[in-house]
Amino acid sequence: MSGVVIAGGGQAGFQVAASLRQGGYAGEITLVSAEARHPYQRPPLSKTYIKTGAAFDSLLLKPETFYEKNAITFRGGERVTAIDRAAGWVSLGSGEQLTYDHLVLATGASNRVLPIPGRDLAGVHQLRTAEDAEKLRADLADASDVAIVGGGFIGLEVAAALRALNKRVMVVEAADRLMGRTVSQEVSAFFLAEHRAMGTEIRLNTAISAILGEERVRAVALSDGSELPADLVLIAAGVVPNDALAREAGLSTDNGVVVDPFMATDDPHIFAIGDCAAFHSVHADRMVRLESVQNAVDQAKLVAARILGSDDPATLSPYRAVPWFWSDQGPYKLQIVGLTAGADHVEMADLGEAGKLVAYCFKGDRLLGIETVNRPGEHMLGRRILAEDLRIARDEVAHADFDLKAHVAALQARG
Ligand SMILES: Cc1cc2nc3c(=O)[nH]c(=O)nc-3n(C[C@H](O)[C@H](O)[C@H](O)COP(=O)(O)OP(=O)(O)OC[C@H]3O[C@@H](n4cnc5c(N)ncnc54)[C@H](O)[C@@H]3O)c2cc1C
Q: What is the pTM of this model?
């Protein structure tokens, strides 16, 4: 066999297979997925899926019949274990070998494992897969005190979902603010206040030092010396990229599989996309690895176009898709456009409406991005601003009468 082999049947792996067929690719496509289930969406796992009795099928990216109809061979429950670049084949866990013309690494990321005593006790969970979510959902029925380790997107989404189920919830965050890697101080502070108002206890600057119990968790011990009851623990302390397969094949890795602006690794026949890929972002002007649906989908589309374009980079543009993210936490939809982490100045719009925010994040005079809460209009305008490289100055935004929509329209009219 040859054609395209895709290692990883998540959001990115699915998309490259679908886009190849949509673009008329006539060769074989094999999607090898360590998870047995057909590709599905992860975002609902930490939001609706754990609190409703939704069926797994509601998560599927496409019905199972899609793969047969599109001649995509889905190898569920199989792992790519090695790449022989000289021979142009991959080995599977079963011992089988698959030859390829192009190999796409879409292996995603795995939850970070914290070296905490007690992490193997019953009642201690992680959340990456539908199976994880189903175990968590089943175990929640008898739990009343939930400790969540990590105040990032996933920890906070779960916290809000569990408050809606009337669980007592505590979030332990080692840093001095929530979502510190991804949002501004101002937005962190808003969510801290709102989660506390929802009834979640939040401990900042606090680490978990042990999970206590005999067979099942009964409490957590914290770095401040306190011990709190917990009959369920969720560890949501970030992820690490699944880049070992690439590294063992002699490809460059550095917090992810290193790729060029066309998502190619050091080997022109091998691409890497999605959560496992480290690339130079034109928006941040540095190497980044992004964990988002948008990034997985856009990089997959680019790789499909490149494979369809007979490897001719002249016919394609380098990856410069505008990054955007969302997170649903109780009644609040947080949306971020751009990579705002390096901002040195944040201008908050004066909206005069409770529960809504627009934060313009600048580095010097350059708008890095916009963070919004329950303001989808500004988020969409932000995507246009960054995509079209429209200039917006700090003093304009700071003006009391600033109207983003009118401003964007005027800039576009000016050309
Ligand atoms: C609970 C949760 C909530 C999220 N919410 C949001 C959200 O609200 N918004 C947002 O933009 N993003 C969200 N994300 C992130 C988003 O889901 C990921 O960025 C996206 O799934 C990345 O796609 P991927 O294909 O790169 O990786 P994944 O979806 O992780 O897929 C990788 C797949 O490859 C498999 N694999 C690994 N190694 C091998 C191997 N050697 N051989 C074969 N298969 C292998 C893995 O088992 C996995 O199935 C969320 C993630 C989680 C876990």
A: 0.96
